[in-house]
Specification:
about 600 residues; mainly alpha; two-stranded antiparallel ribbon; 2 strands; SAPS; Protein phosphatase 6, regulatory subunit 2a; protein phosphatase regulator activity; protein phosphatase binding
Length: about 600
């Protein structure tokens, strides 16, 4: 019956290919040309792989269409050409990767004067990127012969497609020996140094932004690759350069456009100034009303930097932050921007870091009777709990904010968005008062509060915090276990252990990186900070993220101690070990469905 009615149909593309005078444009007009190409229509592929067709396809993605064409159809054929060239069909990949004349046509696109057409740049980058992944050796050999290749790519870095192309070279080359060869080539071309030079006040904003993002992505990709590879693999040369003193010094110099100094602490006043006088931002409409003066990305990343520095407990850094009263300023922002949970989490980390370390002039505990016996030594310049409770008035702020929120809610208003993080901070104080490295000092500081304030705090702890203890109780402050968002995250996740393991390793890495940064280079105070005009602050708004990423995270020790990670792994494995003999899955036994259901719940 099937053959009787002849339901087998012939593609219209096949009908076109029956004509001797069919053109590439006619085939590209067909809606199913890409589908037929990916379906390995042999007649179509043989036609497309002809020299004149391949040249026309490459020309379409590298030549600006006529301005006389209707706007909506100007890039129709270039788009289809790009999809055909990157359809991941072997015959097209082989033709494009092996024909040097076609590669030359592609390369000439980079030799144009900037700016490149962003759409054509994306077509070019996608095509070259596909070749890097599929015809790696041929394309890498071709590009390495071009002495000015990296310079041309950086010349057009204002186009985000060029940033993508660089990252393809770093992440998509296989096997590992060839990838290492490419990394050494990029390092010889001084890629990191040239990207750093682009992060400067005198450069175009798009170039600055893309260059800084590329550096951040190089760090991320290099670390991902290092974690996946075996220890015997050679170190990443680009990452090694990024970790160097010169690179970090160059970034700081370009950010603040001052003299070339390595010390990060000498620039803390500049970061502090950003908290006080950030780049101007227009009012924005939010779900809770109009925000006349948004917090902004710059101040958020400064808060992130401060949190990371405090976690290292590096003496000179903490002393400088204390003298600048940075924590007091961050708490001001915490209570001003009640709906910015990203900021609240960073301030929470700052408080945790301070409470986690013995503070200045730690006093002996009540159990120390022998006066000849000295208490454990504490760093004379460690972050000051005394400053947190006295200068920053942490307890009073917690109580005032809680009472204000209760009044708002009693009047029918909405609970403030920072109350979850405020609850955690309050519990940190209580937990450390009961058992913590600064237990004795916090007890003394609480006793020194004004009598009315002390009474309010005791009532608050005994009544309000105990009211819903399962929800409010947190473990003794540990930055490994802290996580962001609201107080309503006590709901059990289906995969909590995998996520907590990942977070623990991430936090451990950050602390190790920052500590090594401090240990390697040291810090000294500098004089007064330079004044910044609005243009400089606008630039800093773009560059704060890369400074935080590079200055805080890149200087990891070459042979970092992985004890914390191994402990997490052992803990993760232990959860599947019931301290019983391993069950023999082949043993005949009675099946108990209730027990199995319980096991699945675990």
């Amino acid at each position: 019956m099937f053959w009787k009615f002849d339901l087998h149909t012939t593609s219209h593309i096949d009908q076109l290919l029956d004509r001797e005078d069919v053109t590439l444009r006619e085939l590209m007009e067909e809606d199913d040309v890409l589908q037929e190409c990916k379906a390995q229509n042999r007649r179509l592929l043989l036609f497309l792989s002809q020299d004149h067709c391949m040249q026309e396809l490459v020309s379409l993605i590298t030549t600006e269409p006529s301005a006389e064409l209707e706007e909506r159809s100007r890039f129709k054929f270039p788009n289809i050409a790009c999809e055909l060239l990157t359809s991941d069909v072997s015959i097209i990949n082989d033709k494009l990767g092996a024909d040097e004349s076609l590669l030359e046509m592609l390369y000439r696109f980079l030799e144009q004067d900037p700016p490149l057409n962003p759409l054509l740049a994306s077509f070019f980058s996608k095509t070259i990127g596909n070749l890097i992944a599929r015809k790696t050796e041929q394309v890498i050999t071709f590009l390495k012969k071009k002495e000015g290749f990296i310079g041309l790519v950086l010349k057009h870095i204002d186009a985000s497609a060029m940033m993508d192309l660089l990252l393809r070279l770093i992440s998509c080359v296989e096997p590992a020996p060839l990838r290492q060869e490419v990394l050494h080539w990029l390092n010889e071309e001084r890629l990191v140094q040239r990207l750093t030079e682009l992060i400067h006040t005198g450069k175009d904003e798009e170039r600055q932004s893309n260059a800084s993002q590329t550096l951040c992505d190089i760090i991320r990709l290099s670390r991902d690759q290092a974690n996946q590879m075996q220890e015997s693999v050679e170190a990443d040369p680009l990452l090694a350069v990024l970790e160097s003193q010169d690179s970090v010094a160059g970034l700081l110099k370009n950010m603040f456009d001052g003299e070339r100094k390595m010390q990060l602490s000498s620039h803390l006043k500049d970061f502090q100034q950003l908290l006080l006088d950030p780049p101007k931002k227009s009012a924005i409409l939010t779900t809770v009303g109009v925000l006349e003066q948004p917090l902004g990305n710059a101040r958020l990343h400064v808060a992130r930097l401060v949190a990371s520095l405090l976690q290292t407990n590096a003496p000179s850094m903490c002393q400088e932050l204390c003298s600048l009263a940075t924590m007091d300023l961050l708490l001001d922002l915490f209570f001003k921007y009640t709906w910015n949970n990203f900021l609240h989490f960073q301030v929470e980390l700052c408080v945790a870091a301070i409470l986690n370390h013995p503070s200045t002039e730690e006093r002996p505990g009540p159990g120390l009777q022998n006066h000849d016996e000295k208490p454990a030594e504490s760093d004379p310049e460690a972050p000051s709990g005394e400053g947190l409770f006295q200068k920053c008035r942490l307890v009073q702020r917690i109580l005032d904010a809680w009472e204000e929120n209760d009044k708002i809610q009693s009047d029918g208003g909405t609970r403030r968005g920072n109350m979850g993080h405020l609850t955690k901070i309050a519990n940190m104080v209580v937990q450390n008062l009961e058992k913590g490295p600064v237990q004795a000092q916090i007890a003394d500081l609480i006793k020194e509060l004004p009598e009315d304030c002390r009474g309010r705090w005791e009532s608050f702890v005994d009544e309000t915090l105990r009211e819903d203890e399962p929800r409010n109780t947190v473990e003794l402050v540990s930055t490994h276990n802290m996580h962001s968002s609201s107080e309503d995250d006590d709901m059990e996740s289906p995969f909590p252990n995998d996520l907590s393991l990942q977070q623990a390793f991430s936090d451990y890495q950050i602390q190790q990186m920052t500590a090594n940064f401090v240990d390697q280079f040291g810090f000294k105070r500098r004089g007064s900070s330079a004044e910044h005009d609005e243009n400089s602050k606008a630039l800093l708004c773009q560059l704060i993220p890369v400074c935080v990423c590079v200055c805080v995270c890149v200087c990891v020790c070459r042979q970092a101690n992985a004890a914390a990670f191994e402990a997490c792994c052992k803990e993760r494995i232990r959860q599947f070990d019931d301290a019983e003999e391993e069950e023999d899955i082949w043993e005949e036994k009675e099946i108990n469905y209730a027990t199995q259901a319980k096991s699945r719940t675990r």
